[in-house]
DUF350 domain-containing protein
Amino acid sequence: MGFQVSNVVNAIVYAAIGIVIFALSFLVLDKATPYNLWKEIVQEHNVALAILLGAMSLGICVIIAAAVH
């Protein structure tokens, strides 16, 4: 029973670390662009930027998952 609990705890810790790293990388990406990403996507309905940001987010997540694994 203790072995399974430690696996769950490890999964939660690694997931939390991955989410924090992703959030920080998104903030850095947002600061590196000359405009506000959230405003452009939500208020201006910039679909091309949303697709680009989604693809970049998936790429960052794959890198983080490989590094954490």
